[in-house]
Amino acid sequence: MPISPTYPGVYIEELPSAVRTIIGVPTSIAAFIGTAPRGATDRPVHITSFADYEAEFGGLDKQSEMSHAVYHFYQNGGSEAEIVRIVRSANPPVKEGEPAPDPVPKLATKAKISLAGKKGSADAPLNLTAVSEGLWGNKLRVRIDYDTLEAPEARTVYNLTIRDTATGGLTERYLNVSPDPTSATSLKKLLAGSRLVAVLDGDDVMPNQHEPVGTKDGPKIGEDPFKNDKGTGEHAWYTEVGADEDVRGADGDPPEAFNYRGGSQGEEKKEGLYQLLKTDIFNILCLPGAVGQKDSPESIVTEAGQFCLDRRAMLILDSPRGQSLSDAAKAEFPALGDALKNAAIYYPRVEVPDPIQNNAAREAGSCGVVAGIWARTDVTRGVWKAPAGTEAGLTGVNRLTEELTDLEVGRLNPRGVNALHKLPAFGNVVWGARTLVGDDRKADQWKYVPVRRLALFIEESLYRGTQWVVFEPNDEPLWSSIRLNVGAFMNNLFRQGAFQGRTPQEAYKVTCDQTNNPQNTIDQGIVNIRVAFAPLKPAEFVIIQIQQLAGQIQV
To answer: What's the superkingdom here (predicted)?
Structure first.
């Protein structure tokens, strides 16, 4: 604000700076989409360790490819991840002219419970449901007691205890719960943060009588695991959630492409794959277990690839189970279109020890391992370094399902298929760094994974770091400020070794002046910023030339 001088003397005025620092975005937040025995199905869950995954989704599971992929991700250096659990919440509509499936595929459901007071009570029952679909909810146990400070004849509150017997006794206890829905201690408000149950259909009442409570439709469990060690107060039975068949939770049949897409309105409702629209950012997308489903697996890949293109992320694809080397070399994904440059595939699959099966060998896709290596390389070397080579060892992998020779690797690499290769002294490593447009016949500028990922990093960082430009006066003062800030960001990358060139002038160029902002674009409200850079290309082929020198005769 300009100063209005009123007295003789010195005045200090702080002027706004033209510097608006552009911060680089994360590069290795991985998103995993797949099945799990438990966990949220309506939103992505952000985790920073496999312990977080175990707490939310139940840990490793024999039927869950995603659980093992996340485990391998953290084994190989991963740090942050977004988890999207997919269940069969609905069946795809039957196509015209086709018979309905027989039997009808089973849907995933949540376990439910109805707790009522003594027989003849006019109080409404308390209806609870497990927070997510699956058989896990049938292992929940719920108990009401009235061990409160109120006199028995004047009791208006109660205590609720919930135990998950499947996880070794995770327990939640809520004290002095009010049956009044408007109270700050009403059950609906208290259970808002519960990891086990929720109030069903907004039901928020409970009989305030201190009689033992059971279940209206299910059995009462005689033995009380919530023993009152004080020897005082009122006792109550605890009740099994989902005790009857019609209210039991179920995993349902395996989800199909229809469920991965979130149904017919997945993007609009942010369901299935499109739950990731609720996240701020992710950089790597993995679909463990999705490839090979009977309901048009290509449609999952196609939709996921387009989604990655829109969100400036990369898609890592697993080779299908049982795929041969010849098939891998010939595999194409024409439906991906422009999204091919944002995708990469690795061959062969891997064999890993399965901790829940006494470390017996388990065949798995490599996406979790590779995503972890990408994350590890970003931290140690930078996103511009190819996540491949002798440094890119596969941690936690016993062996590859097929050990390739150098000649066999040579059949895959020119076709844009990245090999997992066993090297003497180094073991199993990633031995390729090409995108799906890396086929030599295409001669595409986005041939290499590190080049594409560096470009996506720059694009996303500049997109977020130049939001302040919108609605600013479109003239030279704005252009010079843009050049200053974008140039500082690019120069920082140059000093870290992200570009080719010995000088900044050789490595990058930022243009924002009259040459690319003529008056007609200014009149349209457009400001053009052109950023060019010279990316580092990986040294795929090291050629050593050896020559014999003829013996020299000295006279």
So the answer is: Bacteria
What whole-number distance in Å separates Cα of residue 291 and Cα of residue 288?
A: 7
- For the chain, give every domain's residue range: 30-91+256-451, 112-247, 471-555
**CB of 432 within 8 A of CB of 418?**
yes
The per-residue pLDDT for range 241-278, each reduced to its tens digit, is: 555 556 788 999 999 889 999 988 899 999 999 999 99
Contact by Cβ (8 Å): 213, 237:
yes
Q: Which fold has domain 30-91+256-451?
A: Rossmann fold (3.40.50)
Peptide bond before residue 535 is cis, with ω within 30 degrees of 0: no
Q: What is the pLDDT of residue 124?
A: 61
> Strand locations in 338-406, DSSP E?
343-347, 350-354, 360-364, 399-400
Cβ atoms within 10 A of the Cβ of 316, count?
A: 26
Q: What is the DSSP letter of 499?
A: B
Residue 267, H or E segment: helix 266-269
Rounded CA-CA distance 295/157 in Å is: 52
- Is the whole-model pTM more than 0.85? yes
Exposure of 267 in the CB half-sphere (CA atoms within 13 A): 5
| 237 pLDDT above the threshold of 50 | no
Residues 6+ apart with CB under 8 A from 111: 129, 130, 137, 138, 140, 241, 242, 247, 248, 249
How confident is the model over 356-390, as pLDDT tens digits?
999 999 999 999 999 999 999 999 999 999 999 99
- CB count in 10 Å sphere of residue 232: 7
Alpha helices in 2-123 (DSSP H): 50-57, 65-75
What distance in Å separates the CA atoms of residue 186 and residue 178, rounded to the nearest whole number?
Answer: 5
